[in-house]
């Protein structure tokens, strides 16, 4: 429980902090945010990716008189569900019409409160570091009353803008190494990404889901971030980590995905049952996070490069698969349930891998009856025609900037 006067003081203090805060690089997502009307805007993304900064930018550009309240403020640790009534009094007294709530998902029953304020005619923006903000927890309480947007660490375009670099193979290699977390780019201390990795595992997963075996969760997460681009299955991981049940491993994977730490893409099949049965490929939210936290002693630039291209695609597509029959094609992207493009990723084409890479994507193109596909490399540009299919070889920095 918390006093109304305390809530009012915290709102005032956070507002003063906002006025002295550098709002940072204008995010590419900002112009894409919809105008607030009868729907709540939900912005979800991994911890420390810049959600609060995006909120500041939205506040400054469109809603300068809005209420801003960050529920991760230590002074709000005692805030309970029944304190929303005291918050209501402050809102009415100070005549706010736009409400911006940062990390509100840590308060039980927050969805009911947001629904109530929507019904009362308030405009609302909510941010949180859990993908369940986009699905599970909204349940029936906000059905049809919310618009969702995801925010990721800096894209390559944002990275080169932030670092004042030009799009090139060199700047892309730098991005591959350091990733896109804003604070890490400013300070360059590996401890920032070490602590972030631990924070997500402990605060966003272990505490949130009441996981007792934290050590196994940590070991599993480090194993996965050390093996991006590889196939994983619940049974195999259960045996490696000697976990009692495959269902426990699958729960851990689900939590990691909902916290945005890792992504898992299925093998393409028109059969949902086969998709579930086959191994999935694992990718991390950021290549800098991989470099700092990986337990691998070898530089696997090919896998990290594949991860980078996945992240670019993930910003546009929700439906991404890998294709594997005789050969393999790294990414099949669908939009609105229909095939959109096939993409193969190869750090560097050479005589030893050329046929394998081409055959994998050609097999996918034949399966989907499509004429052209793309093969993304670090800096090579070429064009191949085989079996009536055209493969455009494109340097990654050109592909990302133009697609």
TrEMBL record:
Kindly name one Pfam family recorded for this protein: DUF4143
Q: Which residues form the AAA domain?
A: 39-159
Q: Which residues form the DUF4143 domain?
A: 203-347
Q: Write down the superkingdom of origin.
A: Bacteria
The protein's matches in InterPro entries, at most eight in alphabetical order, are given as: AAA_14 (IPR041682), DUF4143 (IPR025420), P-loop_NTPase (IPR027417)
Q: Which PANTHER family match?
A: AAA+ ATPASE DOMAIN-CONTAINING PROTEIN (PTHR33295:SF8), ATPASE (PTHR33295)
Annotated protein name in UniProt = AAA+ ATPase domain-containing protein
């Amino acid at each position: 429980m918390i006093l109304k006067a305390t809530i009012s003081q915290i709102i005032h203090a956070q507002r003063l902090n906002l006025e002295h805060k550098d709002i940072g690089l204008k995010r590419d997502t900002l112009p894409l945010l919809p105008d607030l009307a009868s729907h709540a805007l939900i912005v979800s993304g991994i911890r420390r990716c810049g959600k609060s900064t995006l909120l500041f930018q939205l506040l400054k550009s469109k809603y300068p008189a809005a209420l801003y309240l960050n529920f991760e403020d230590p002074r709000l640790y005692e805030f309970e569900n029944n304190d929303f009534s005291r918050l209501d009094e402050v809102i009415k007294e100070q005549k706010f019409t736009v409400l911006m709530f940062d990390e509100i998902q840590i308060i039980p029953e927050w969805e009911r409160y947001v629904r109530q304020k929507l019904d009362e005619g308030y405009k609302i923006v909510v941010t949180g570091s859990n993908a369940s903000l986009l699905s599970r927890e909204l349940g029936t309480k906000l059905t049809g009353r919310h618009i969702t947007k995801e925010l990721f660490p800096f894209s390559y375009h944002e990275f080169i803008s932030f670092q004042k670099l030009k799009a090139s193979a060199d700047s892309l290699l730098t991005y591959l190494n350091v990733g896109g977390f804003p604070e890490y780019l400013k300070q360059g201390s590996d401890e920032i990404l070490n602590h972030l990795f631990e924070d997500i595992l402990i605060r966003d997963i272990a505490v949130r889901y009441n996981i007792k075996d934290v050590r196994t969760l940590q070991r599993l997460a480090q194993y996965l971030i050390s093996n991006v681009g590889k196939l994983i299955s619940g049974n195999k991981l259960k045996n490696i980590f000697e976990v009692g049940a495959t269902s426990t491993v699958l729960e851990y994977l689900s939590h990691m995905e909902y916290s945005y730490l890792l992504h898992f893409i299925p093998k393409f099949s028109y059969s949902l049952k086969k998709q579930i049965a086959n191994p999935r490929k694992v990718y991390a939210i950021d290549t800098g996070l991989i470099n700092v936290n990986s337990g691998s002693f070898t530089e696997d630039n090919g896998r990290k490069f594949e991860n980078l291209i996945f992240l670019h695609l993930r910003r546009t597509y929700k439906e991404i698969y890998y294709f594997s029959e005789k050969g393999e094609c790294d990414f099949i992207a669908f939009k609105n349930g229909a095939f959109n493009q096939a993409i193969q990723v190869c750090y560097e084409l050479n005589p030893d891998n050329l046929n394998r890479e081409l055959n994998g994507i050609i097999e996918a193109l034949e399966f989907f009856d499509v004429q052209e596909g793309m093969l993304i490399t670090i800096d090579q540009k070429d064009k191949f025609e085989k079996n009536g299919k055209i493969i455009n070889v494109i340097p990654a920095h050109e592909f990302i900037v133009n697609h």
